[in-house]
Design goal:
Elements (H helix, E strand, L loop, with lengths): L3 E8 L4 E3 H5 L6 H8 L3 E3 L8 H19 L9 E5 L10 H8 L6 E5 L5 H15 L4 E9 L9 H4 L4 E9 L11 E9 L7 E3 L12 E3 L1 H23 L5 E4 L4 H11 L10 H4 L6 H12 L7 E8 L3 E8 L1
Length: about 325
């Protein structure tokens, strides 16, 4: 069964933290950060804000639903909500269940999944599989993370890399939205290497626990994994589909990684849109935030073929070949 993205939405907190701001509280500077990561600034929640993950997810979802409603979807048509997050506000209930209530979709099936930076790809693949099976026609997929909850701002190696935010898409297999071309997931690959799980980890999502809720990362190991494995996975996916996409929409972890992937794929950088300079790494939210920007700017249009790809804790990685 076909499936089409009929709505996108994104949200980042109002507070902007520049590299110069970080330089006032740690041993770093703007040139050092930009040359190594491509990041100029990031958006972070105020420390005393309540229910940060839910707030971000609701705001991004509202925007995606408004876009879908303008095309004729009714909010009650949403049958399933999947939220990808590794920073929920509470152990339970699932953030997706809270969304169902707050968005006025109380009867929808709803669940969360956790795969850190690869989470949105896993959620999107799961939603597409549900639509393809005929179980559901309209699914809200959200990637949201508030990484400021897990950062130690005394650790320069990790705290400069992350931002807070959420992105959402409405994915539909409803015949009303078929459009002029056959759209949907043409191929998908998800993989993991649990033997490398310790390279990127967090013992708890709650900082008040004995082992703390602080992210630990071997940055070089993650970088080398991404540069080596992501291009291989994308090549395998494109060969299986038998086509080459117009754009590669990659997880926004590090601009140098994006450059390295482009080089290994022998593709020009103009096929790799990015916004890491403005938002940093928002974990499960990077790809849907970028998708929303590209759709709203008109850069992505019906019939375009794109590859979504990312990597993260697990170590995990994935790639989806999508015709819009």
């Amino acid at each position: 069964m076909f499936s089409r993205i009929i709505g996108t939405g994104a949200f980042v907190p109002e507070k902007t933290v520049t590299n110069d701001d970080l330089a006032r509280i740690m041993d770093t500077n703007d040139e050092w950060i930009r040359s190594r990561t491509g990041i100029r600034e990031r958006h972070l929640f105020e420390e005393d804000a309540k229910d940060k993950t839910q707030t971000a997810a609701i705001k991004a979802s509202e925007r995606a639903l408004v876009m879908a409603e303008e095309k004729g979807l009714k909010r009650s048509d949403i049958e399933l909500i999947i939220v990808a997050t590794c920073t929920p506000d509470h152990a339970f209930p699932a953030t997706a269940c809270v969304l169902a209530d707050r968005l006025g979709i109380g009867s929808a099936a709803a669940f969360d999944l956790s795969l850190a930076c690869t989470g949105f790809l896993a959620a999107f693949s799961t939603a597409s599989a549900y639509i393809g099976s005929g179980m559901y026609k309209n699914v809200l997929v959200v990637g949201v993370d508030v990484m400021s909850k897990l950062l130690d701002f005394g650790d320069r190696s990790t705290s400069i890399l992350f931002g807070d935010g959420a992105g959402a898409v409405v994915l539909s297999g409803d015949e009303r939205f078929r459009g002029s071309c056959e759209s949907g997931v043409l191929g998908s690959i998800m993989r993991s290497d649990g033997s490398r799980a310790g390279v990127l980890s967090c013992d708890s999502i709650y900082k008040n626990e004995d082992r703390g809720g602080v992210l630990h990362m071997d940055g070089r190991a993650v970088f080398e994994f991404a540069v080596r494995e992501v291009p291989k996975l994308i090549k395998e996916l494109c060969e299986g589909v038998g086509s080459v996409p117009s754009y590669y929409i990659l997880h926004q972890a590090n601009y140098r990684i994006i450059e390295a992937v482009a080089k290994r794929l022998r593709e020009p950088m103009d096929k790799f849109p990015y916004n890491i300079d403005r938002f940093a790494n928002t974990t499960a939210a990077t790809i849907p935030i970028l998708l929303d920007e590209l759709f709203r700017s008109g850069r992505l249009r019906e019939g375009d073929e794109v590859v979504l790809s990312g990597f993260g804790a697990g170590l995990s990685l994935g790639a989806i070949y999508l015709r819009l």
